[in-house]
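Hi F.,

I've been meaning to write this up properly since the lab meeting, where we talked about keeping a consistent format for the predictions we share between groups. The idea is simple: the sequence comes first, exactly as it goes in, then the structure tokens exactly as they come out, then a line or two of notes. No screenshots and no reformatting. I'm using this chain as the first example so we have something concrete to point to.
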Amino acid sequence: MKRVILICLCVLGVNSFAQTNQDLIKHYEAYYKQMKKQGDIQGVINGLTHLNLLKPSQAREDTLSLVYMSEGKYRQALNTIGIKNNATDSDIAIEVKAISLKALNELERASIFFEKMFNRKPDVSIAYELAESYLQTNQLEKAKTYTSYGVENSTNEMKKTFYETQQPYQVSFKAAFLHLDALITFNKNKKANADSAVDILDEALKLAPNFNLAQLTKNALLQQKQQINNQQD
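Output, unedited:
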């Protein structure tokens, strides 16, 4: 008799827990929707976190990491989904890993995921990220591959935003790729290629006269060239 009572109590406990769990899921689903409606990002994060604990979902986890990334919380984004290169990663997961790793200056790791993004859907903006990352890690041939792709596939309507001035500004992606190409050319041989790099920068400035960063780079190269000539004299 005691055994029967114990079994009944266990069954009631399981049913009660299941009911409570379902109630919590419904509560946090409603909470999540309301936070989205109100534009409360921290509320969205809290809602997704609770839902993922109550009812784990890879799609929900990816969404949570994307929200973290969008808020500039790159470490939290990566802590949510990890940094392993998984064959089953969704497009969102790959994008979060690429952008977050780059933001944390993990350029070589970031390049792995930008490559995956590019292989799934080639795009000039991803090519720019790859060219820039490979340039910064001195992988010049790889960087050149993506600048060439960018120059060939950019249209006048495609714009890249730069932020080194107080007021952000835009230039054509082709001009932006030419700026990277000039830096690649210069870094291949700083003594011999200064003039060629300046010529490429002039081409970029013709396309985008407002390209402040290209002008700064040109001035720096001309100054460095002058210093080398003075030393030789």
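Notes:
The chain is about 75% helix and 5% strand.
Confidence is low (pLDDT under 50) at residues 4-18.

If this format works for you, I'll send the rest the same way.

G.
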